[in-house]
Amino acid sequence: MCLSIHDRLVGLTAQEKKEFLRLVVERIWVDKSNNLEIEVIIASEAKQSRVGGE
Q1: Fewest C-beta in 10 Å: which of 3, 28, 38, 51?
Q2: Most distant CA pair in the chain: distance in Å?
Q3: Is residue 34 in a domain?
Q4: Any idea of the CA torsion for 43, 11, 17, 39, to the nearest 10 degrees?
């Protein structure tokens, strides 16, 4: 899934990428070793807006 999303983000502007992240990222944790864990929201198909005009 991540590769599919990555491929669709390639054609977006920096502002569009920021908006996408605001929509899907719920939380980001950083542990004491600076490892990241990112929790995202995957909306149901009926609620998803189309990214990149597709």
Answers
A1: 3
A2: 40
A3: yes
A4: 40
For 26, the domain range is 2-44
CB 51 within 8 A of CB 8: yes
Domain tally, the chain: 1
Whether residue 3 has pLDDT greater than 80:
no
Total length of the chain: 54
Q: What is the DSSP letter of 51?
A: G
Contacts 24+ apart (CB under 8 A), 41-50: 49/23
Q: Any idea which residue has 């600076």 for tokens?
A: 34
Question: What digits encode the pLDDT tens for the residues 6-26?
Answer: 888 888 999 998 998 888 889
Q: Is residue 51 part of a domain?
A: no
